[in-house]
Design brief:
The protein is an alpha/beta fold. The protein folds into two domains: about 210 residues, Rossmann fold, CATH 3.40.50.2000; about 150 residues, Rossmann fold (3-Layer(aba) Sandwich), CATH 3.40.50.2000. Helices cover about 35% and strands about 15% of the residues. It is built from 13 helices and 15 strands. The strands form three sheets. The chain has a seven-stranded parallel beta sheet with strand order 3-2-1-6-7-8-9, sandwiched between helices. Strand 1, helix 1 and strand 2 form a beta-alpha-beta unit. Helix 2 packs parallel to helix 3, helix 7 packs parallel to helix 8 and helix 7 packs across helix 12.
Length: about 400
């Protein structure tokens, strides 16, 4: 029995198997909602192995489910436990559902994967629908190219799930950049649920730590590759530029990421140690502080880094990955078309002169703020407004045949 006098509660599911993107987005949303409503509590469900390394604000906490990791062939395996992956998935599903049952959320937000990793959230969605809890799907601006996403969603039977379980779909971006569900045949009832919130603007914490640098000084170029698991090519390319042109005008700070292979980290650290104007660190939880100080940014173009580039109004060279998903390539090319960033494609040769030229020109690029894109960074305030609507009104009476139009913005 829920106590009507208690503060409202939001449960957020993030399927994290590898990388930092989903966790960082969910953490930002949790902090935004908790800051907006002083009586609100937010609990994040995550499989990230490093979620405990991050700071969480008052009234935001997390439950970590057993971790899994995706193999090259597309299968999953347990990250740390020596047990069958099916057992791991059963444990995850049980923890998720029992957490939701005990926490009694007033709103459930599912990040990116409508039914969770291998369907692990469907039981929780069904249980919460029975309780009348509003359920929302949150999508980043770009999912993947339509030719790949459509068959994946068909295989997972996602569209019926969107009709059956979800009251709302929030797209953390703008249609000028991308429609994340382009190419997927959606009934009008589902399309009408979609609201583009704008990008999730980031800000420095009230007490922003000054991250000390050991070798270089401000102003510097920040080179960040997110979690680092697939960022080795960019780090290598930047190092080649500094090795071939020691007179580059600005020093570089390389943030390698916690998931980069140890052998690669050691190699990059050794190469950076030979350069007077390059410093390398393994991981920094307060990346926003470094981003704010940087004169320019070299990055891969993941969702969170793109939001930070826009939020801190940084000139950026984006080198997107194109495998296993083309998400970053689509985002970077659309952003370049709008004049928000410059994109550099990695053709495999990693020409040192080409990178050195890009680094020399980076501080002369125009800033994102010099491009007028209405609603670009309105994400936080719109997410708050949408959440407040559902916290006040409760769930809709959904059915597969008929889904109401909401339209809160």
């Amino acid at each position: 029995m829920q106590d009507g006098r208690r503060g409202k509660r939001v449960l957020i599911y993030s399927h994290d198997s590898f990388g930092l993107g989903h966790l960082r987005r969910c953490r930002e949303i949790a902090h935004t909602l908790a800051e907006a409503q002083r009586s609100l509590s937010v609990l994040i469900l995550s499989g990230s192995p490093i979620i405990g390394s991050f700071d969480f604000r008052s009234r935001v906490d997390f439950v970590r489910v057993p971790g899994v990791i995706k193999l090259r062939n597309g299968d999953y395996t347990s990250l740390a436990l020596h047990i069958d992956v099916e057992q791991t998935m059963a444990m995850r599903a049980s923890i998720i559902e029992h957490t939701a049952e005990a926490f009694e959320p007033d709103l459930f937000i599912v990040d990116k994967e409508p039914l969770g990793l291998r369907g692990e959230v469907e039981g929780t969605l069904a249980m919460l629908r029975e309780r009348g809890t509003p359920c929302v799907l949150g999508l980043r601006d770009v999912m993947d190219e339509p030719g790949l996403l459509a068959p994946e969603w068909e295989r997972k039977q996602v569209v019926p799930a969107l009709q059956r379980y979800f009251d709302d779909i929030w797209v953390y971006g703008l249609p000028q950049v991308c429609d994340p569900l382009e190419g997927i045949e959606l009934p009008d009832s589902v399309r009408k649920k979609m609201t583009y919130t704008g990008y999730l603007k980031r800000s420095l914490p009230k007490v922003s730590p000054h991250v000390p640098l050991e070798k270089i000084e401000d102003p510097f170029l920040l080179v960040t590759v997110g979690g680092g698991g697939d960022g080795e090519a960019i780090i290598d390319w930047v190092l080649r530029a500094y090795e071939s042109d020691p007179k580059l005008p600005h020093p570089a700070l390389l943030v390698l990421g916690p998931f980069m292979k140890g052998e690669a980290q050691s190699d990059f650290q050794a190469r950076a140690a030979q350069l007077d104007n390059v410093e390398a660190v393994t991981f920094e939880t307060h990346l926003e502080s470094l981003m704010d100080r940087a004169i320019g940014v070299v990055c891969m173009g993941g969702y969170n880094t793109f939001c930070e580039v826009l939020s801190f109004d940084k000139r950026a060279v984006v080198i997107p990955r194109s495998m296993p998903r083309r998400e970053q390539l689509i985002r970077a090319s659309r952003a370049q078309d709008l004049g928000l960033v410059q994109m550099l494609r990695d053709d495999g040769t990693r020409d040192a002169h080409l990178m050195a030229t890009a680094l020399r020109n980076l501080p002369q690029q125009r800033r994102p703020s010099e491009v007028v894109v209405p609603g670009l960074l309105d994400g936080p305030k719109n997410v708050v407004r949408l959440a407040e609507y559902w916290l006040e009104h409760g769930a809709s009476q959904l059915s597969v045949a008929e889904t109401p139009t909401t339209g809160r913005l």
